[in-house]
Specification:
CATH superfamily of the largest domain in chain A: MetI-like
Helix content of chain B: 25-40%
Strand content of chain B: 15-25%
Oligomer: heterodimer
Strand content of chain A: under 5%
Mean pLDDT of chain B: 89
Number of strands of chain B: 20
Structural class of chain B: alpha+beta
Number of domains of chain A: 2
Number of strands of chain A: 2
Radius of gyration of chain A: 24 Å
CATH architecture of the largest domain in chain A: Orthogonal Bundle
CATH class of the largest domain in chain B: Alpha Beta
Strand order of the largest sheet of chain A: 1-2
Shape of chain A: globular
Distance between the termini of chain B: 58 Å
Helix content of chain A: over 70%
CATH topology of the largest domain in chain B: Dipeptide-binding Protein, domain 3
Largest sheet of chain B: 12 strands, mixed
Number of domains of chain B: 3
Radius of gyration of chain B: 25 Å
Shape of chain B: globular
């Protein structure tokens, strides 16, 4: 009886439900991506040969369909891909002559590093400016902070990226991203130079929502009784600010940061393109143009797994931040 | 105060992380040329290459029997001389002596035979098979090759140029190594391909035309032309091909720009087998409502020339010979009325703006011009692959097309405008007159005769408004100031990098 009750508890525990729903979501995404790619016109042959596809005879097209594995019924294609994916075989990129796993192994660290740097910079800037604003609501400093938030939200990443690249290259003859990409373990200094501007652009994009969330969360918490009590007891204002107010405002900030990190993984596409970063965004974009099904499907699944994992981790961080959540 | 100090610390840390302190990156060695490309290469098989990047990069590694020079003349490549028999059904080529593949194997007629047979073999998926499909058999001996043709076909000589006609080693073909190993007779040797990043080549000291002055050429992928221009300004890239007139306008005096009229052309492609375009008056109305000069001005910043169907200099169409060489709205309206549309009509035009930098502008320009004649143009914007797919299926009424040109009009248009051409369904137009004229053009060895034939073909196409030919855009090659000796080729090939030096 006790065993059954433990099983039941496990089955209905929030973590279990969360993981089960994540798996269902991933399964749904895999079907969605697979179908969307087949619904849009074109296929791997037109992607590879362009208008020269018209010069191919029916026998050549049949051979190519077999070669690319698109002569199989859709259901077969799906299960062949998903079973391979689950066993660690992400498929083959015909355009590069390499496995999608090998390509992802190179591209994923670039995107993760970029998203990580963007998030760190965004959180530092967002929380700092949010606190700065919330300290005196309605004041000139609050106006300045909110103006930053508004501008950071309004200026598109591609405009900021293009402006930075153009100004740095034209005025300072400096564009380290046009040199060969260097991984941090190969040449950390060059990697830093190549990451700093795209990281800053993404950081500004993250800072805006984090700043606004921080400001409103702080303003909400600052009026709470426990804050007044702490101040009344003579706890220094700075200590109250960080230990009581900020800590109790962290939940929405953590939520926003988690969501933003997830978006950065996918949203870095344009920044990767302008700064010539060989990341996952570019990998997916080029694969869509070439209709390389396996590359797109497997790369999107990698994104989806990461997004879902980050959401679960964010949930777990909640518990750490606020023990009331179970 | 304390909070302010902390904020200041955070600010300084952020600024440091953001990299306010700049250190100039290491510069490339003096004779290492870096070429900026927006798209990575997509294969190592030269005969199957279709993307511009692949064609340009592999074009430096492989050689072809003939080459097309700066004035679009056919000049010796791996073949030094050639001649047709009296009926134009046999082409004899004599090969260059002492040429070696980059692995040291001598190049001879057997390699030519094996290479051409590979192109003719449907299993090889060679891109230019249709251009030499009239080869019936090949005989090879020593340094002499004879191509026996099924029909008289003089234009086949020009079709032997380019990377799709690359000469491969018979040994590599037999071993099934094409696309896996890279072994050509060109001025540069393949070193490596880092997918998504770069392709590296080094000079071939035993090149038949003399060792190149450059030590190496690296094709580096920088996905936007604006970023490539920034890299040129930063000095990290020394050579690039730019297609966007807007980006080209930003090229400063610190760089050298070559503006070259290419063979490619922009056209409003019409599917004349589909209503209402099966009505000649409707097609002529489109033809008369459009000012090409206006399109060039608004979409290509004035960089381009008005053209007729044939862009090959030797047989170039005269755009003034067409019906309505200038826009004539009254005539366009008259054609619409005659065609049964006195109150105008609405047409849908397929466009893929990412195909070429001027396409979005062309769409807008045409839309506003046609509106004056009572034609409402709805732009059907799609991505490249969708465009290609629908284009091949002739699933469009009209489409803005960016088509490549060839130095011989036969190779350029036979596949489109003869009733048996493999792209005739896409072209949407054919006639018995055109079929007959194209056969005459193929079999004639006389330039005078061929000029008259292609003039008649141009007239037939334009009088029937098969498509609305618009303009030939300029191609821009931009180099750093220390790059000297580059000769731009209208074919888009970068083969002349073999003569480039860096000071």
């Amino acid at each position: 009886m006790q065993g059954i009750s433990t099983l039941r508890r496990l089955f209905f525990s929030s973590t279990f439900i969360r993981i089960a729903s994540a798996i269902t979501t991933l399964f749904g995404i895999s079907i969605f991506v697979f179908l969307v790619l087949r619904v849009i016109p074109g296929n791997t042959i037109t992607g590879a040969f362009g208008i020269e596809t018209g010069a191919l005879n029916p026998q050549q097209i049949a051979e190519l369909r077999h070669y690319y594995g698109i002569d199989q019924p859709m259901i077969m294609q799906y299960f062949s891909w998903i079973s391979s994916f689950l066993s660690g075989n992400f498929g083959y990129s015909y355009a590069t002559g390499r496995s999608v796993f090998a390509l992802t192994k190179v591209a994923l660290p670039v995107t993760i590093e970029l998203a990580f740097i963007g998030t760190i910079l965004g959180v530092i800037m967002g929380i700092a400016i949010g606190m700065f604003s919330a300290r005196k609501p309605g004041s000139f400093r609050d106006f300045g902070g909110q103006l930053f938030g508004l501008l950071a939200l309004a200026i598109p990443g591609f405009v900021l990226s293009t402006a930075i690249v153009t100004i740095m290259a034209n005025k300072f003859h400096y564009f380290p991203n046009s040199l060969e990409y260097m991984a941090p373990w190969k040449d950390p200094w060059m990697n830093f130079q190549q990451m700093m501007f795209p990281g800053l652009v993404l950081g500004i994009a993250v800072a805006a929502p984090v700043m606004r969330t921080t400001r409103s969360a702080l303003l909400e918490t600052i009026d709470k009784d426990f804050v007044r009590t702490a101040l009344g007891k003579g706890v220094p204002a700075r200590k109250v600010q960080f230990k009581h107010v900020l800590r109790n405002s962290l939940i929405p900030i953590v939520t926003m940061t988690g969501i933003q990190f997830g978006y950065l993984l996918g949203g870095a596409v344009i920044v990767e393109k302008i700064f010539a970063m060989p990341g996952m965004g570019r990998q997916v974009l080029e694969a869509i143009t070439r209709r390389e099904y396996a590359t797109v499907q497997s790369s999107v699944m990698v994104f989806a797994i990461m997004f879902v994992t980050i959401n679960i981790l964010t949930d777990l961080v909640y518990r750490r931040v606020d023990p009331r959540i179970k | 105060m304390k909070l302010r100090k902390k904020l200041a610390v955070v600010g300084v840390a952020t600024a440091l992380v953001a990299g306010v302190v700049l250190v100039a990156p290491a510069q490339a060695a003096s004779k290492d040329l870096v070429v900026g490309i927006t798209l990575d290469i997509d294969k190592l098989d030269p005969q199957g290459a279709t993307s511009f990047s692949t064609v340009r990069a592999l074009g430096l590694v492989y050689g072809s029997l003939v080459e097309v020079g700066p004035k679009l003349q056919i000049r010796p490549g791996l073949a030094t001389s050639w001649g047709f028999n009296a009926t134009g059904t046999q082409l004899r080529l004599h090969l260059r002596k002492g040429v070696k593949f980059q692995d040291g194997t001598p190049f001879d007629a057997q390699d030519v035979k094996a290479s051409l047979e590979r192109i003719l073999d449907p299993a090889s998926k060679a891109a230019a098979r249709a251009n030499i499909a009239t080869i019936k058999s090949i005989t090879a001996s020593g340094l002499d090759v004879t191509l026996n043709l099924t029909i008289p076909n003089v234009p086949i000589l020009a079709a032997l140029d380019g990377v799709n006609m690359a000469m491969l080693s018979k040994k590599d073909i037999a071993a099934g190594n094409i696309g896996k190993t890279v072994n050509g007779t060109g001025p540069f040797k393949y070193v490596s391909w880092d997918a998504g990043q770069s392709v590296k080549l080094i000079k071939n000291p035993t090149y038949w035309g003399g060792a190149p002055k450059l030590d190496s050429v690296t094709f580096r992928v920088i996905p936007t032309e604006a970023s490539i221009l920034s890299a040129l300004n930063a000095g990290t890239v020394q050579f690039a091909v730019i297609t966007s007139p807007l980006v080209a306008k930003q090229v400063g005096s610190n760089l050298t720009m070559y503006k070259t009229p290419g063979l490619a052309y922009m056209a409003l492609q019409i599917n004349a087998r589909q209503a209402p375009f099966n009505n000649l008056n409707v097609r002529l109305a489109l033809q008369c409502a459009i000012s090409r000069a206006e399109v060039i001005k608004t979409a290509a910043s004035g960089d381009g020339s008005v053209i007729g169907p044939i862009t090959s200099p030797a047989y170039k169409s005269d755009p003034k010979a067409r019906p309505c060489p200038e826009a004539d709205i009254a005539k366009a309206k008259a054609y619409l009325t005659a065609g049964g549309y006195p109150n105008g009509l609405t047409i849908k035009t397929m466009v893929a703006p990412t195909q070429q930098a001027t396409i979005a502008g062309i769409g807008q320009s045409l839309k506003s011009q046609l509106a004056k004649a009572g034609i409402t143009m709805e732009l059907d914007v799609v991505d490249d692959s969708t465009y290609v797919s629908r284009w091949l299926a002739a699933d469009f009424g009209t489409a803005i097309a960016n088509n490549g040109g060839k130095i011989d009009p036969d190779t350029m248009y036979t596949r489109y405008f003869t009733s048996t051409g493999n792209l005739n369904k896409v072209a949407g137009y054919s006639s018995a007159t055109l079929d007959s004229l194209f056969i005459q053009g193929k079999s004639s060895g006389s330039v005078t005769q061929r000029t008259a034939i292609y003039k008649a073909i141009s007239a037939e196409l334009e009088n029937n408004a098969a498509w609305v030919w618009l303009f030939a855009p300029l191609e821009y090659r931009v180099t750093a100031k220390n790059v000297t000796g580059f000769i731009p080729l209208a074919t888009g090939s970068l083969l002349e990098l073999r003569k480039v030096d860096m000071n």
